[in-house]
Amino acid sequence: PHHLVCLRNDLRVADHPALHAACADPTAQVTALYAYTPEQWQQHDVAAVRIDFEWRQLQSLVTDLAELNIALVVLAADDYTSLVPKLLDWCQTHKVSSVFAHEAYEINERARDNAIRDGLSELGIEAQWFHDSCIIAPGRVLTGDGRVYTVFTPFKRNWLMQLAEHPVRLLPVPEKRTACAVASSQLSARAPSITVPIADGLVQTLWPVGEAEAHARLAQFIEEDGGRYHERRDLPAINGTSTLSPYFAAGVISARQCLYRAEQHKHHHAGQQGLDTWISELCWRDFYKHILLGFPHVCRHQAFKRETDKLPWSHNEANFQAWCEGRTGFPIVDAAMRQLNETGWMHNRLRMITAMFLTKDLFIDWRLGERYFMQHLIDGDLSANNGGWQWSASTGNDAAPYFRIFNPFLQSKKCDPDGEFIRRFVPELAHLDAKRIHEPHAKGVDVRLKYPKPIVDHALARLDTLAYFKALNAAS
Ligand code: FAD
To answer: Which residues form the Photolyase/cryptochrome alpha/beta domain (predicted)?
Structure first.
């Protein structure tokens, strides 16, 4: 038999349900296939830095798979529509007997997989689908009457209860096969037709690929920082979070592996309160994937709370550009946006501050911010990004109440008390002391600074936004 594993956001060999199942029959020859669909990704606003990361990870994976005598084939197609017949054709030509893959939860990916399912069934090729990306598969954490939770806290309670009853179990790396069915593709040094807008070499240094790297990050985080996570996770100047998100997005590491490791550490060491908070973040990740599958309209650029689509968002292009480029005159917002533009990643607290600033201070439609993030994040993930944006814009499920609007200057003082993070990304303010750096024009515009004055008056903008939301509530 010839077994084909369709790789998607699961670029690893350990704890890989589809690969593991494909290798269960020792007589089967196994091939892994990765579909490269750049036009589709462009339509989905997938960042070049994220595609580049996956491509680099493929280069690492091809070696890991070769050690198991499993070939890695890259099949290029413009989009999902043109991919399906190519994939079916490949299966026929190479006499594939069974296909193994992980379920996707996004709307277009599900349509793609349904077309693959139908095509394989017409060809008489068996297909097996597995859940992978969540710790508990979407659709399995439901309210007493079988509905998808829209509030996080009861979701988490149920999620933890299920895990206490059925702790996660990890799958080993499959045994080496006796022979390869086909030859692996020769991978070019860089991802085809992609230009990464970040200084050459920097992404490789910041985000090295490989399962070993992901596990080293996990081990370092759990052993050194995990216990203090709850105290330090809101301080962007410190490396207090795991920075594993790009590895999750590409599936270089599984969420189960992370949970398992955290639980093991807690078991052997007392006082690991930080790790409980971190496990909550893994739960948020699952929660937003449950929302995506349960309420697919959020995949279609629609607000979770549909009535909020009536908000009269501003179309101020100059303000939007200033936000994108980190020139708003609000140092913490600008430092954060420059971190995103220069490194492909942004700290969670800063994602909340910049998203809240775009939607509540500039009153610009959250969809523009969501799209810009997706186009620039190395960890861009539809469910987490959409969830984070709708939370910040108060248009989502269990979102920030509309009247709780962050004050960007106070947030700045809280999360970057010494101004260290701002100094790193806004060099024109680097000489200012910790008191002045958060609001450099507080005592009137200082032209010597070569730093813009705030593009909006926070206090006034806040009142306008409150009025828009109040009017919306009164009307609905
Ligand atoms: P850690 O603090 O170490 O957390 C561990 C893991 O838990 C993360 O890697 C991530 O997989 C998950 N996680 C943490 N926080 C959240 C959250 N709020 N929602 C869902 N999962 C979470 N995360 C993405 O992975 N991709 C995105 O595109 C994305 N966009 C976001 C947009 C906005 C506006 C906001 C507010 C948040 C967004 N997040 C996104 C969530 C969060 O900011 C990142 O997951 C986190 O900053 C990644 O850093 P880390 O790996 O060090 O996280």
So the answer is: 1-135
Does the complex come out with an ipTM higher than 0.90?
A: yes
Does 340 contact ligand 1 (Cβ within 6 A)? no
Predicted model pTM: 0.98
Handedness of CA 104, 105, 106, 112 (dihedral sign): positive
* Cα 281 to ligand 1 centroid, rounded to whole Å: 8
Atom 14 in ligand 1: residue holding the nearest Cα: 281
Atom of ligand 1 nearest to the CA of 377: 28
> In angstroms, what CA-CA distances link 399 with 240, 310, 402, 404?
25, 17, 8, 10
Domains of the chain: 2-132 (3.40.50.620), 134-171+202-294 (1.25.40.80), 306-475 (1.10.579.10)
Any idea which residues carry the catalytic annotation?
A: 281, 284, 313, 348, 366, 389
233 within ligand 1 shell (Cβ under 6 A): yes
Ligand 1 atom with minimal separation from the 391 CA: 36
The tens place of each residue's pLDDT in the chain, 476 residues long, gives 999 999 999 999 999 999 999 999 999 999 999 999 999 999 999 999 999 999 999 999 999 999 999 999 999 999 999 999 999 999 999 999 999 999 999 999 999 999 999 999 999 999 999 999 999 999 999 999 999 999 999 999 999 999 999 999 999 999 999 988 899 999 999 999 899 999 889 999 999 999 999 999 999 999 999 999 999 999 999 989 999 999 999 999 999 999 999 999 999 998 889 999 999 999 999 999 999 999 999 988 999 999 999 999 999 999 999 999 999 999 999 999 999 999 999 999 999 999 999 999 999 999 999 999 999 999 999 999 999 999 999 999 988 899 999 999 999 999 999 999 999 999 999 999 999 999 999 999 999 999 999 999 999 999 999 999 999 999 88
Helix ranges, 295-381 (H): 317-325, 331-343, 348-356, 366-376
Answer yes or no: are the C-beta atoms of 390 and 399 closer than 8 Å.
Answer: yes
CB of residue 349 inside a 6 A radius of ligand 1: no
Tell me the best of 253, 278, 289, 348 to mutate to test the pocket of ligand 1, counting ligand atoms within 8 Å of each CB and taking the most.
348
Indicate the residue type of 55. W
| Contact indicator for 279, 136 with CB cutoff of 8 Å | no
Most ligand 1 atoms within 8 A of CB, residue of 379, 381, 397 to mutate: 379
Q: Cα separation of 251 and 17, whole Å?
A: 12
